[in-house]
């Protein structure tokens, strides 16, 4: 099996990313690319055999959770290749290279698959929560279980 790699997104990637984004009506890909142009974040893509298989974003805006890994999305047909881990590792290195000692993420408490990955990657729950004004149903198996808050996790980057 060939390796999954991660890199900074480029303008040439936008059509592919938009075609695969989970909520095209909000064009999160376009928003994140604009934020990267303003240097308030980094949009990354994961590639496998020359094909984009996912993306993630490192946000430098929220002072309480800075930097925060957000919007990790692995295309469903490419899950299980290690793309999530490749993106997380690459984004963490970017945060460390910018001088940060830790990195954060927030996740719906019902998103068991994501939480399992985060724990494997060395993240630990802080016990803090982020209130969500407009919760999303696409991150949980049962739309009736949408959470009105996200749990905050953190990871030290000092071991890098």
TrEMBL record:
Residues 4-153 form the N-acetyltransferase domain. Gene3D superfamilies: 3.40.630.30. Transmembrane segments: none annotated. It comes from the Bacteria. GO terms for molecular function: acyltransferase activity, transferring groups other than amino-acyl groups. Residues 1-22 are annotated as: Disordered. InterPro entries: Acyl_CoA_acyltransferase, Bact_Acetyltransf, GNAT_dom. It holds the Pfam family Acetyltransf_1. PANTHER family: AMINOALKYLPHOSPHONATE N-ACETYLTRANSFERASE-RELATED-RELATED. This is N-acetyltransferase domain-containing protein. It comes from Luteococcus japonicus LSP_Lj1. The lineage of its organism: Bacteria, Bacillati, Actinomycetota, Actinomycetes, Propionibacteriales.
């Amino acid at each position: 099996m060939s390796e999954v790699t991660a890199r900074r997104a480029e303008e040439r990637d936008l059509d592919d990313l938009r075609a695969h984004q989970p909520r095209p009506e909000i064009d999160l890909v376009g928003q994140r690319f604009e934020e990267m142009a303003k240097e308030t974040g980094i949009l990354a893509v994961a590639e496998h055999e020359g094909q984009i298989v996912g993306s993630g974003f490192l946000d430098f805006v929220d002072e309480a959770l800075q930097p925060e890994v957000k919007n990790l999305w692995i295309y469903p047909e490419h899950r299980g290749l290690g793309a999530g881990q490749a993106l997380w590792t690459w984004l963490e290195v970017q945060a460390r290279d910018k001088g940060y000692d830790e990195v954060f993420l927030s996740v719906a408490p019902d998103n068991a698959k994501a939480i399992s990955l985060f724990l494997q990657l060395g993240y630990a729950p802080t016990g803090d929560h982020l209130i969500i004004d407009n919760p999303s149903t696409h991150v949980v198996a049962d739309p009736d279980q949408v959470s009105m808050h996200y749990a905050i996790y953190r990871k030290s980057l000092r071991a890098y």
